[in-house]
Specification:
Number of helices: 3
Order of helices and strands: HEEEHHEE
Number of strands: 5
Oligomer: single chain
Bound molecules: 2'-deoxyguanosine-5'-monophosphate
Radius of gyration: 14 Å
Helix content: 10-25%
Distance between the termini: 30 Å
Strand order of the largest sheet: 1-2-3-5-4
Strand content: 15-25%
């Protein structure tokens, strides 16, 4: 499958420094910042710096170094926020069915309150 990346998406603009963000962690290949519309006391987005649309795109085309960096960045955020004891949820929406709003791969890290069941049954 060919993935098409739109470099005008809002996270691409954040990566270029065109839009401010509340950074929690920056690594060589990844950036983590607070979601602008938090849905839990902790709501951090982790994005790779490379132009990847979705998780499957990233898994297929990113370098090993990018994948290791990104995976470790997600884990580091959990440590920085102290989430080991109470737990957290990771979500990565993709495409239409996943209701992805911003077409640049991001993992949502949500924590700080009971998060309910994973999906609405509706
Ligand atoms: P998703 O539906 O998975 O594509 O979620 C996109 C998230 O991005 C959503 O929770 C709101 C957040 N978001 C959108 N625009 C901005 C922005 O300009 N800055 C920040 N920090 N977050 C944003």
């Amino acid at each position: 499958m060919a993935y098409t990346y739109d470099d005008q998406n809002i996270f691409a603009k954040i990566l270029r420094g065109e839009i401010p963000n509340d950074t929690v962690l920056e690594t060589e290949h990844s950036l983590a910042f607070r979601d602008i519309t938090p849905q839990a006391p902790h709501h951090v987005l982790v994005i790779p710096k490379g132009p990847y649309v979705t998780y499957d795109h990233f898994a297929a085309e990113a370098s090993d170094a990018e994948i290791v960096d990104y995976t470790r960045a997600v884990g580091q955020i959990c440590q920085i926020l102290g989430l080991e004891e109470d737990g957290f949820r990771l979500i990565s929406n993709a495409g239409r069915a996943g209701v992805q709003e911003v077409p640049h791969l991001h993992v949502h890290i949500l924590a700080g309150r009971p998060l309910g069941r994973m999906l609405d049954k509706a």
